[in-house]
Amino acid sequence: MSIVEMKVPVIGESITEVTLAQKLKGNGEYVNLDEPICEFESDKATLEFPAEAAGVITWVAEEGDDLEIGALVAKIDTSAAGSSAPKKVEKAPVAEEPKKEEAPTPVATPTATPVPATSGHASGHPSPAAAKMMAENSLVSADVKATGRGGRILKEDVQKAIQAKLAAPTTNGSTTTPTPVAPSTSFSREKSSKKMSRMRRTIAKRLVSAKNNTAMLTTFNEVDMSAIFALRKKYQEEFVEKYGVKLGFMSLFSKACAKTLMEMPDVNAQIEDTNIVYHDYADISIAISTPNGLVVPPVHNVESLQFHEIELKIKALAKKAREGSLTLDEMKGGTFTITNGGVFGSLVSTPIINEPQSAILGMHTIQQRPVAINGEVVIRPMMYLALSYDHRIVDGSTSVTFLVKVKKLLEDPMKLMLDI
């Protein structure tokens, strides 16, 4: 027998632990070489783990286990290689027991349905138990509908009469106090517990770190989206026809931020120990909501890309993010982040910095609001913008100037097109 041990491989420099998210093969199943046997969830992405040999797999780790790099996950018995599937174990024949004679099934005697008689010596007369209940509740025979044989009043008949009496209005028009109703048991008071996914734990850790380790402040402004609406309405069909993708808000916002970042390098910089690291490029991280949590893969060199290239890259990253197929390389980097809470209806918020970056722009929902233009009140599609920044590296005046520059570019998008 030859056994191949399947251990957690080295995934990336910063990753020391993974979670066994899902087994793709059951215990004792046959696996082929390079066939995925499970999925690992790291801090940044979900990765498939392929079999290093063909054979029958025996699991050592369980789903949900946190495993260090190099930890044993499963064992593969390669002596079964060559078989397309594990052989079935044939059970030894079991001698049949002699059949026992079955006893005849007893036939139930049908019970006659009691039909109240219209006349007879028992008609209108209560049973002893019924008579006692009638006396206690001041009922007479006329108040009770008899269902017993021969017209006899049964205990159950008296109970129904009592309930009917309580529910009926009295002669003076008022109602009697209803019978207390037992508390409803249709609602639940149960609790359940579920282990946080590795991605959710990582997100929580990074958010707390950003709040605790940065001097984070937020400045706000608003942008009139009229010019962008008009631009998209005029050129959308031609844009889609030529490039196969829509001209969305994200490419316009990304380009406006990238252009401004090149003019204001402090907002595009990062702190490393006692140094400030500046970038001569703008890698814009785009916040994407997935079933497992928020991911922020970057679009590289946005300052050098055309609008359709930005849109295509964002679309591809969003598709991979929701499928859980983003690679570690696709998650690395980023010098600035944009998050759009407006798609969920957020009117205004204070986004949290994506460390080690120094700033993040928050987009919000677009609302028709009255604004004053040239001394007149008009209705315009307005969006609030929020820029959260690390005050250790970005001054207040710098953050305000940055947001004003982005606002002006968005309100006059031809400046973006002409790069002026």
Layout of helices and strands:
Elements: E1 3-7, E2 17-23, E3 30-31, E4 36-41, E5 46-50, E6 55-59, E7 66-68, E8 72-77, H1 128-136, H2 155-167, H3 198-213, E9 216-224, H4 226-243, H5 249-263, E10 270-272, E11 275-277, E12 284-286, E13 288-290, E14 293-295, E15 298-299, H6 307-323, H7 328-331, E16 336-340, E17 359-363, E18 366-373, E19 376-390, H8 396-411, H9 414-418
Parallel strand pairs: 12-16, 16-17
Antiparallel strand pairs: 1-8, 2-4, 2-7, 3-6, 4-5, 6-8, 9-19, 10-11, 12-15, 13-14, 17-19, 18-19
Helix pairs in contact: 1-2, 5-6, 5-8
User: What is the annotated CATH architecture of the largest domain?
Assistant: 2-Layer Sandwich
Derived structural class: alpha+beta
| Count of DSSP-assigned helices | 9
Give a count of the beta strands, DSSP E runs of length 2 or more: 19
Share of helix, binned: 25-40%
Order of helices and strands: EEEEEEEEHHHEHHEEEEEEHHEEEEHH
Rounded to the nearest angstrom, the distance between the terminal CA atoms is 72 Å
Percent strand equals: 15-25%
Q: How would the global form be characterised?
A: flat
For this structure, the CATH topology of the largest domain is: Chloramphenicol Acetyltransferase
- Mean pLDDT metric: 84
Radius of gyration over all CA atoms, rounded = 37 Å
Let me know the CATH homologous superfamily of the largest domain: Chloramphenicol acetyltransferase-like domain
Tally of domains: 3
Q: What is the CATH C level class of the largest domain, in words?
A: Alpha Beta
